[in-house]
């Protein structure tokens, strides 16, 4: 029972991070129909920016906000400079570009900061919380992770459901030409979509790095896991991405806890295969009436 | 007044519009007719800046809007309802309408959504449905209602009858006729269905291979048997 509770809590924390990452992928997919393979590398860069600030004695939360702002700027610049020129061309072009970007960001970070592992601080304790004489499988930082991801998600829901800006962004993503005819500045909305996604990715990066070691490759597993979570829930659906992230986090945590850590990647790929075979559009795909 | 003068456009080497000139008066429906490929849709797309014009100009109440960015046209009072019932299928009826009102004609009062539901009671009943759940007729009502949310003075409609049952077409054309009077609209109605279009239009312009071959009061066009056989198919 104790072990079940521990693995479940651990899985929820892990799942929250996957969810944030899947959400970032989903935002970009929805607005530009591109799977952004550079997402992890972009988050890695913003995390390094935060680390540099923290090492220069900037308070943790200021660095946290700076990472989000850096992500926002990086996402906007990448959309304008790198993605915009291939928009409307074959979708593979943009995907290859994001893969290239992944490698470039990797290389640049390694050149600038070195490839050695560095410790990354956490704003709260990363030791398991004690209840009586035993400890349960969650840390204050784990709780913080879940709370932060929940806040980010709630913020996005409010933005997209209840604000005019969110309505413009959704319209631009769903039907660019009609939106332009209605006066929406579609290009600006797509840039904003990338910027928001990268900001969410930056948050995920900070949560993954907290209390752990970082090097330029520390986000790489999330290229795969975030993608699986997003596909599991349906790349089109933000809610689906979040639930996909939680399902993946829990599954991997149970596999790690009960069978063995080494099986986790295999199970993740297994889940991906099953989803692609059985429900290629994901668990929460919108009705099949897209592109009417 | 809405005036198109000598407007030309091309897709690569193919001339799609060749010196099209006509005017559409306030409070009137001007039908643009012609066979498939005559350039009707291209005409509207060029006016909206979705296709670049190679020559000519478009004037709206004396203002030259030829090179104005597509996104700015609603603020000048021009609404373009594209072919194929351009609802945004993933958004609800209310969201589609709200979107239409976000960038309205400069200086105009916001249009209450309830007013659209008075015009199209059917939409009010389905306000929270997503647009892809709507029937063809409901979608056409939605795109017209959405265009009205921007308080346009000129409404460009591309084939509103496409794929609709004759009864629904008649209903929508009736509504349109009423709107022209109550809202003081200038309507440019592109139609393949020439017979229905001429029945509500004041003026007709006939295109063939990107050129204007006839421009006359609607009744006159409808009475010209030769023209009807040659270009209008009835």
TrEMBL record, chain A:
One of its GO terms (biological process) is amino acid transport. The keyword 4Fe-4S does not apply. The chain crosses the membrane at residues 12-29, 36-54, 60-82, 94-115, 135-160, 189-211, 217-235, 242-260, 266-289. Keywords: Amino-acid transport, Cell membrane, Membrane, Transmembrane, Transmembrane helix, Transport. It comes from the Bacteria. GO terms for molecular function: transmembrane transporter activity. GO terms for cellular component: plasma membrane. It is found in: Cell membrane. It holds the Pfam family BPD_transp_2. The keyword Glycosyltransferase does not apply. It is a multi-pass membrane protein. CDD domains: TM_PBP1_LivH_like. Belongs to the binding-protein-dependent transport system permease family. LivHM subfamily. This is Branched-chain amino acid ABC transporter permease. It comes from Nocardioides turkmenicus. The lineage of its organism: Bacteria, Bacillati, Actinomycetota, Actinomycetes, Propionibacteriales.
UniProtKB/TrEMBL annotation, chain B:
Transmembrane segments: none annotated. The keyword DNA-binding does not apply. One of its GO terms (biological process) is L-amino acid transport. It comes from Nocardioides turkmenicus. This is ABC transporter ATP-binding protein. GO terms for molecular function: ATP binding; ATP hydrolysis activity; branched-chain amino acid transmembrane transporter activity. The lineage of its organism: Bacteria, Bacillati, Actinomycetota, Actinomycetes, Propionibacteriales. Keywords: Amino-acid transport, ATP-binding, Nucleotide-binding, Transport. Gene3D superfamilies: P-loop containing nucleotide triphosphate hydrolases (3.40.50.300).
């Amino acid at each position: 029972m104790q072990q079940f509770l521990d693995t479940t809590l651990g899985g929820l924390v892990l799942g929250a991070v996957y969810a944030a990452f899947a959400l970032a992928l989903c935002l970009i997919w929805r607005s530009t129909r591109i799977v952004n393979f550079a997402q992890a590398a972009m988050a890695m860069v913003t995390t390094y920016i935060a680390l540099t600030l923290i090492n220069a004695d900037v308070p943790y939360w200021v660095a946290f906000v700076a990472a989000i702002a850096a992500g926002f700027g990086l996402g906007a610049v990448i959309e304008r400079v790198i993605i915009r020129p291939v928009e409307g061309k074959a979708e593979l072009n943009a995907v290859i570009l994001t893969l290239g970007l992944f490698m470039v960001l990797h290389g640049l970070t390694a050149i600038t900061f070195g490839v050695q592992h560095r410790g990354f601080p956490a704003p709260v304790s990363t030791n398991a919380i004690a209840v009586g004489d035993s400890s349960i499988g969650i840390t204050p930082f784990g709780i913080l992770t879940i709370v932060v991801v929940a806040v980010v998600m709630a913020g996005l829901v409010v933005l997209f459901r209840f604000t005019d800006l969110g309505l413009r962004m959704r319209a631009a993503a769903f039907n660019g030409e009609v939106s332009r005819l209605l006066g929406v500045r579609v290009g600006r909305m797509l840039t904003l979509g990338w910027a928001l996604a990268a900001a969410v990715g930056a948050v995920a990066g900070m949560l993954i790095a907290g209390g752990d070691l970082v090097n330029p490759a520390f986000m790489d597993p999330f290229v795969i896991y975030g993608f699986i979570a997003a596909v599991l829930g349906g790349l089109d659906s933000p809610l689906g991405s979040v639930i996909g992230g939680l399902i993946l986090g829990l599954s991997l945590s149970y596999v790690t806890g009960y069978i063995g850590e080494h099986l986790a990647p295999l199970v993740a790929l297994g889940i991906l295969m099953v989803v692609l075979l059985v429900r290629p559009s994901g668990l929460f795909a919108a009705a099949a009436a897209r592109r009417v | 007044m809405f005036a198109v003068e000598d407007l030309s456009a091309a897709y690569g080497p193919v001339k799609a519009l060749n010196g099209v000139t006509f005017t559409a008066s306030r409070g009137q429906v001007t039908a643009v007719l012609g066979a498939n490929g005559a350039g009707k849709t291209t005409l509207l797309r060029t006016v909206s800046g979705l296709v670049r014009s190679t020559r000519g100009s478009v004037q709206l109440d004396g203002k030259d809007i030829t090179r104005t960015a597509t996104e700015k046209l609603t603020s000048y009072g021009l609404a373009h309802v594209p072919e194929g019932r351009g609802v945004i299928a993933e958004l609800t009826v209310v969201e589609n309408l709200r979107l239409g009102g976000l960038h309205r004609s400069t200086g105009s009062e916001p249009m209450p959504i309830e007013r659209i539901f008075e015009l199209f009671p059917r939409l009010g009943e389905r306000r929270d449905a997503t647009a892809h759940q709507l029937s063809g007729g409901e979608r056409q009502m939605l795109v017209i209602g959405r265009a009205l949310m921007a308080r346009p003075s000129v409404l460009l409609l591309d084939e509103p009858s496409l794929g609709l049952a004759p009864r629904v077409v008649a209903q929508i054309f009736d509504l349109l006729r009423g709107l022209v009077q109550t809202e003081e609209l200038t309507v440019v109605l592109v139609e393949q269905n020439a017979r229905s279009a001429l029945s509500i239009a004041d003026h007709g312009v006939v295109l063939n291979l990107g050129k204007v071959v006839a421009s006359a009061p609607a009744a006159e066009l409808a009475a010209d048997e030769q023209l009807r056989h040659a270009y209008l198919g009835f």
